[in-house]
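Task: complex structure prediction.
Instruction: return C-alpha cells for all chains below.
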Amino acid sequence: MANDKATTEATGRRSHSPGLGHRTSLVIGLALAALLIAAAAIGPWLWSLDPLAMDFAAPLAPPSADHPMGTDANGRDVLARALAGARISLFVGAIVVATGFLSGGGVGIAAALGRRWLDALLMRIVDALAAFPPLVLAMAVTVGFGVGLTTATVGIALSCVPFFARLMRADVLRIRALPFVEASVAVGVGPWRMIFRHVLPHAAPTMLVQCASVFGYAILTLAGLGFIGLGAQIPEPEWGAMITDGMQYALTGQWWLAFYPGLAVLLAVVAVNLLADYAQAALGVRGLEA
Amino acid sequence: MIRFFWKRISASALSLFGASLVAFFLLRASPGDPARLFLGPFAGEEALKRVRADLGLDGSPLLQYLIYVRRFLAGDWGFSYSTGQPVATLIARRFPATLELGLYAFLIAFLSALALALVAAYRRGPVDGTARAISFFTMGVPPFWFGLMLLLMFFEALGWLPGPDGRLSIKVIEPPRVTGLLTIDALLAGDFAAFRDAFAHLALPALTLGLTPFSFLFRLLRANLIDVCREPFILVARSGGLTRWGAFLRHALPNAFMPTLTASGLLFGQLLAGSVLVERVFVWPGVGALVTDGVLKQDFSVVQAFILLSAAIYVVCNLIVDLLGGVIDPRLAVSGGDR
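Output:
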C-alpha cells in the first residue's frame, strides 16, 4: 500500500492489481484474439477454397458441409471469404495503428517539447483534423483520392492522428513536470536522452492502451467504409463490403451472407477491446474511457 | 466568463477554418479531377473546361479556396446529377428525418447509459459484470449489421415492428407539417394512430444509431461514478446520516456527470455521421441514406457537401456543451477549459 502511494506520487499514476472482471476480460479477449489470428494466419491454408472463385452451379447455397457458411449470389464460398477478410482487417488494423501512432505520437512529442509556435501550429492542424467526426474524415480521403482499400486505410489512419497526438502531448507534458524528470535535467541529461530514456517509457502504458482501442476502431471503421461503398469493393473479401453485398438477400431468407462477416467484425473488435480493457486496468492507465 | 466564452468561440471558429482547408485540400486539390468526377470518364475537353469554370476551379488555389468557402456559406453546395436537384435542397428536405432519428437515438442512448451506469456503479459485482459485457457488445458490433439483425428478428421472424419502409406505413396519412419531426407533428395534430406508426418505425433505427453513444456514455459515467465514490466527501455525506443510495444520487452523480455532459455533445455531433451507416439498412429517408445513395450512383456532390456540413455541426455541438460546461462548473471557465 505504501509502495502504491509512492508510485502514485512518482509517476502520477495509480497502480492497482486488476480485479476479477478484468481478468475475465483478459481470458476471453486472449481466446478470441487467438482464434482471429489463427483464422487469418492458417485459415486460408486449412480451408483452401478460393475466396474469389465463382461457382454458378451453387449460388446462394445455404450452410452445408461443402460450404459451412453458405455461398453468395455468385457461388463464392462465404467461409473462405470470411477467412480472407480476417487477413485484410488485421492487416489494415496493424497499418493504421503503426502509422497513426508514429505520426500522431511524433506530432504530440514535438508539440509538447518544441517551441511555443510549433506547439500552436501543430495543435491547430490537429484541431482541424479533429473538427471532423472520424468516420467523415476517412470518407473525405476516399472520396478525394479515389475509392478503394488503400485510400480507406490512409483515411482511417489520418482520422486517428488527432487521438494519438493529443494524448501523447498531454502525457509528455504531465511526465515532464514530474520531479524525477526535473532531477534528471538538473544532473545534465540532454533533451534526446530525456525523451527516450525518461519520458517515453512512462508514456508507454497509455499509448499501448490507445493503440489497442485504435486497432478496434480501425477494423470497425474499415467495415463501415466498405459498407457504404467507400472502402473495399465487391468482390474483394472485406467484411463490410460482404455485409452490404449480403444485405439485399437477408430479408428474403439468405441470412448467412451478411450474418457471418458481421459476426467476424463483432468478435474481432470485442477481442481487441477486452484486451485494451485488461491492459488499462493492469497498467493503471486512467481517463481513456471516452 | 465572457473571456472564456470568447476563447471557446474563437477556438471553434479557428478549427472550422482549418477544417475547411482540410476539406478543400482533400476534395478539390486531390489528384482526381473533380470536373472529371462530375462528368464521368467519357466527357469531352470542352465540357470539362465548362464544368471547371462552373465549379470555380480555373483560378489560383487561393481563389479556388475562397470561392469554395463562399459558396458553402451561401448555401450553394453544388448540384446532384443523379437527382437533378441542388444539393442544399436535397439535404434540407431530408434533414428533419435524420434529426428526428438522431434525437430518439440520443435519448435512448443517454437514458439507458445513465440507468445502467447508476446500477452498475452502485451494485458492482455480477450486475456490474453484466452491464460491462453489454457495453463490450454494443461497442464492438457494427451498427449497420446490428440493425439488419434487429430487422430479421423483430420484423421478419416476430413481426412485431414494421420493416424497412421509411418513416410511416403507406396506408398512414402524414400529419400536417409543423416541425418536420413526425412524432411531434402527429401529437400536435392529435393523430395518435400516426404517432404510434411513426414511433414504431423509429424504434429499431433509433436503437441501432444509439449503440455507439450508449457504449461511450456508459463506460465514461460508470468509471467516473466509481472514482467519485472513493472521494472523502462521499464519506462525509454518509457520516452525516445520508443513506448510501442517497449519497450516491445527491453527491456522487452530480460530481461524476461533467465529463459525461462534455462527451454528450461530442457524441450527439457524431450522430449525423453515424446516420450514414444506419439509414440505408432501414431505407430511412434522411441525409445518411442520401449520402450512401450518392456513393452508389457515383454522384459525389452530395458526399462532398455532407463532409463539410457534418464538421460544422460537430464543432457547433462541441462548442455548445463546452460553453454549457463553463456555466455549470465555473472552475472549467477559470482554467480556460484546457484538458
